[in-house]
Automatic annotation (TrEMBL):
Coiled coil: none annotated. InterPro entries: ATPase_NBD (IPR043129), FtsA/MreB (IPR050696), PilM (IPR005883). This is SHS2 domain-containing protein. The lineage of its organism: Bacteria, Candidatus Giovannoniibacteriota. It comes from the Bacteria. It comes from Candidatus Giovannonibacteria bacterium RIFCSPHIGHO2_02_43_13.
Amino acid sequence: MALNTFFQDFNIRKTFSQFKKYKSFLGIDLGSSSLKVVQLKKERERPILETYGELSLAKYGMDGQTGRSVRIIEDKMSEALKDLIKESQVTAKQATVSIPIKDSFLTTIEMPDLSKAELHEAVPFEARKYIPIPMSEVEIDWWVLPPQSREMKAASPGSGKKKLLSIILAAVPKEVIAKYRSILKDSGIEVSAFEIEVFAFARASIKEDFGSILLMDMGAATTKISIADGGVIRSSHSFDRGGQELTLALSQSMGIDFERAEILKRQAGLLKKPENEGVASILETLFEYSSSEGERFLIDWKRKGGRAISRVLIGGGGALLPGAKDALIKSYGVEVDMINPFYKVVYPPFLEPALKEIGPSFVNAVGLALREF
């Protein structure tokens, strides 16, 4: 079974299916602290927003507290998804579903300049060198990346260098795919495609070829960082630090419960106002860890010949932290933009304030729904 092509249109190109003119497309983002859905309708080749919704998993799992990663069994996840589908008045019966990067394996490899048929034979064989579990236990997919300018120059006539192809290789354990299929089936939804979350994030974020961009998806339990160059994802990395770490630090340092700490974090953030200075000081040290992790990622990217980034795009619930944007500008020295994924979608004007406010949290869900556009 193929993974329904993880990489179909994960760059900024668009394709359209004329026979699907009025079909609805559903994106389901299975986060660690909440679930999100976005349903779009294709009409005159435009994505029209039909419905969207978010549901906290706090009451469905163990140690459930809003804003915190929740341990949850499959039955409870299905129950939560059913509730969200009902409350959001979702009508679509098929969906594109996110695969967390922590449940997948993603890397870039180099291959000789072979024909398409030869690559189909060679890539699975080469993948054995990179994937840490038996090939019989995973589903793989891959995509040949368009060359960067430096690669084209290196392989130009007379350069004396043999042309190599850069390929993104993805693998997901079959047991992970089976688990998510079961959750969706029990919720009354058929999976039309799975997609690793970083590609959905990129699809909803990139407006045009801005050069080399750092994408940051700041979730509750993890932060995912990726490089998009030439409109395509070329490298990704994740680490187990997210918004809940900031809340826990506040809770422990100030002797308050998690819920109160979450409210304080969202209100004060990193803004060093006199009344918030204590909160900002606690959060600043932990937030700097995410920035430094991104800096190390960029150093490795440049060491491998990548271009310097021209800007940073941030999304996920953690991007809403007051002062986060300014702190990242200070760290990276480039323009930092908060992502509003709904810019690609047609919706009633009265929804503008609400969608702008929640946009960063819905990047993955919107990107998944946009997969067929």
